[in-house]
Amino acid sequence: MIRLEHVSKAYRTRNGRKIVLDDANATFEASHNFGILGVNGAGKSTLIRLLAGSELPDRGAVRRSGRVSFPLGFGGTFHGALSGRENAAFIARIYGAAMRPTIGYVEDFAELGEYFEMPVNTYSAGMRARLAFAACLAIDFDLYLIDEVTEVGDQRFRRKCAEAFRARMAHSDIILVTHNPQTLRQYCDRGAILANGALSLYEDIGAALTQHHRMIQETA
Amino acid sequence: MIESIAKVRDNLELSSDAAGLERAIAAGDLDSCRAVLHECAVSDSDRAAFYCRLGEAFFYRDQTEAALECARSAFELQPQRESIADFCAWLFSNCGHHNEAAAAYERLIVCRPGWAAGHRHASGSFAAAGDIDRAIQHAARASEIEPGRLEFAVHAGCLLAGIGLHQDAIGYFSRAAEIEPDDPLVLRHLSGCLLAADNRELALDLALRAHRLAPSDRPTAHHATELLLRCDCCAEAAQLISAALAADASDTIGYRLLSAAEMLCGRTEEALDAIDRALARAPAEAEYHLHRGNLFYRLARFEEAAAAFDRAALLDPDNPATKRSQLTVYFDSGRYREALAVGGALIRDAPDNEEYARAVLRVLNRRFETLDGDYVLLGERSAPPIRIARSPSGFWSAAQTQWRVIHALIIRETRTRFGDSTLGYGWALLEPILHILMLSLVFAVLMHGRPPIGTQFFIFYYTGIIPYHIFVHTSSSMTYAVTANGSLLQLPLVGTFDVILARGLLELVTDILVAVILLAGFGAIGLGLLPHDFSGVSAAVATVWLLGCGFGFLNAVVNAFFKSWDKIWAQLTRILYFCSGIFYVPGMMPDWIRDMLAWNPVLQAVDWFRASFFVDYAPHWLDRSYLAAIAGLVLLAGLTLERILRRRLSEPL
User: Fold this and answer.
1) What ipTM describes this predicted complex?
2) Domain of A86?
3) Hey, which residues 134-193 in chain A have their CB within 8 Å of chain B?
4) What is the value of pTM for the model shown?
């Protein structure tokens, strides 16, 4: 479960302040999977990082219970000069997971072959994403935060990821950002829309999708 | 009418019936005759003859139904009579009643065995009535009786070709070709059958011969063109049909064929021109629009292609090929919604076509931004397990987590501490050794063999270099902590404080190890000297490290916002090298310089270290509490700055 209490977050950009959240209150309850919707630039990735704790709010507090994953996205959480193995070891160490089984799991799951021993800098975006998936799944989180990387790698790898998540979802939740309504409907039962600094939660992902669609059409 | 019937009846009563009927027919009173004929007292053969005469008269009056009725009555009365059957066959076939005509012809054939023309007629009637099997039987018989008749052979061949019996048809057409070797029609038919039987070369040969014999005949020209196209002779096909079109410019199908030939020759623009001409003559031909759309598609003119396909779909809504083309062009021009709609219709119309299904799937995948349709439907979570919310982690577990993170970061830093240097950790040891050796060489000459304190240059310089390095290494290494670990900072557990402190701790551990190893090394070469006040040395090291950490935190934060700070800091540390009493003691300086240098906390640290190391060194300017206060203040400033700007530091770079 993650609770946002009077959370405000803004960026300074070249075009002035960009408000992501303005005094937002919301509770992402446990035992539900949330799909986060919002137009490009609304700050979905920032929201995910706030939920994870990778970023800190300007005001207010983000309270978490249970183990919340690092944000699984295209923005790397790996050190470029270290190999895949060293990065996996790092993740295992900071989360206090058993080293050998964790690294073994990542090595098996990511299927990087010789690249597992090479610096992450030499990886393609797809290989990085695979490593990220593997590392994220290697740790037993209560809540997984996934940012736009549901479609990665070839078909077989995606199926493997989906199956791993399905197994994991028996006792873990996910909060998912994606533009793919099909994926949202598959994974999520509830929805949230981030727009103009406000975060509104919906009991039903279908209602959230409909509302989001309407909002896009109104602005278009 | 009733009056007229009564009159005829009166007449009949007056005279013999036959004579009365003759009179009535001659008077043109056909309807009345027909009404009473069945009850007249005449023989069946006369009655049938009368029916025939009445039928003929009705036919010429254009009263077809009445004529047919009469003929039927006659045929029912005396079907076995040749003249009756002859008349009925004639009338039925002229009125388009081919079934009855065929029956009449069969009757006639019984009467006239070996009558080839009769078989031919019967065959025609059966064919027209749709009974192809019996039509073929009669056609074969006709041609059998008169094998030399061209028309019979052609007729039989056409019937056989029509139901796909091309081999049998080839026999009859070959016979026809023997009878008349230069008949273009026969050659064309034969060519068509040969093509169907997969004898392309001969088929092409014959088709071209037929075209040469009848260059102005449209079907023959079309046939020859088609055969050339099928034999991949696109250029020849285009040439042939162009020539034919030059003579006959109104040939719509010719333009369609020309378009196909030009397209296959790769001349899409010319093909487009040809199909436009064809469409100018037959604007409602769906297939032409479809073809035109495909040509536009080849030219990547998707909008026009889509328009052409739409037109074709409008004219012929049931053609799956049109929908397939629409699907492709919508898909390629990004109109996914329309592509999906037409794809749905396509699947509905042709549910068993695998190629269509694949194409629609591809569109679906693109629509949903996935590849290969790999949707794994996740099972419904029927009863989501209720988890007890974990209580917020206490101080102890938080401290454990923090230590795990810093520990992991220290290990991570050891991997890259010296980058790609082949010396690796050797450099950590080599750097102070080089400094000490260089200073020893220079000053051993200058100072005539005696250091300011103690007896060994190595030990003296060692006591200067070690505290200085602890300070410089710590503060400089921490400078890059945030910028070098940007991606790791995306991990929620990893904070800026952790990455900065980890670097400082690594430097402390490294430099202490180096100090111990060097001291052991000096002992090994007989220059051994142990510090007289061990706790003083440790306190000095700890304090100078804390001072380094304080500056390190400041550097790390400043460097994250002011990228050139590391260069300035590097220059400052170089100046510090000369101001910190590393290779001299402040006591050697004039008082005013010494008093100024005494404000330098690093110099204070070096002297603290030396005062604890050498038993007889007790500088009066050394103020340990001053150094501790400065270290504390700077550390406080550094930690405060990090705490204030932590939020900005955690934003992705």
Assistant:
1) 0.89
2) 78-140
3) 142, 151, 154-155, 158-159, 162-163, 165-166, 169-171, 179-183, 186-187, 189
4) 0.57
